[in-house]
Amino acid sequence: MNEKDEDRADAWFHALSDRTRRDILRRVLAGEHSVSALARSYDMSFAAVQKHVAVLERAGLLTKRRQGREALASGDVEAVRAVGVMLTDLEALWRGRISRMDELFASDPQHDTTDNPTHLT
């Protein structure tokens, strides 16, 4: 990953680290919502919801457009897929390392796996 990709991943995981933002993302992935309508769904101020929406927008997980006086928010499915791809790549890396450790332990006649299993799949 280059520096730009790392910055984008930081923004994704920062945005997704908050329960309210994950809930907002679920709602806007299901369909476009006005920020005002979203704000009515939470026990917090409109300004606080706007800040959550702004974090999601900066991370590229949500887009906003104006319709009259309303700001309408939609989830960006491609960005969410990119997060999933990144997590899948990390899982593959982890599984590869575990597999190599299993092979190493299996080839070591001194290693007894009956008392301390290392297979973590």
From TrEMBL:
Pfam families: HTH_20 (PF12840). It comes from the Bacteria. SUPFAM superfamilies: Winged helix' DNA-binding domain. InterPro entries: ArsR-like_HTH (IPR011991), HTH_ArsR_DNA-bd_dom (IPR001845), WH-like_DNA-bd_sf (IPR036388), WH_DNA-bd_sf (IPR036390). Residues 1-95 form the HTH arsR-type domain. NCBIfam families: HTH_metalloreg. This is Winged helix-turn-helix transcriptional regulator.
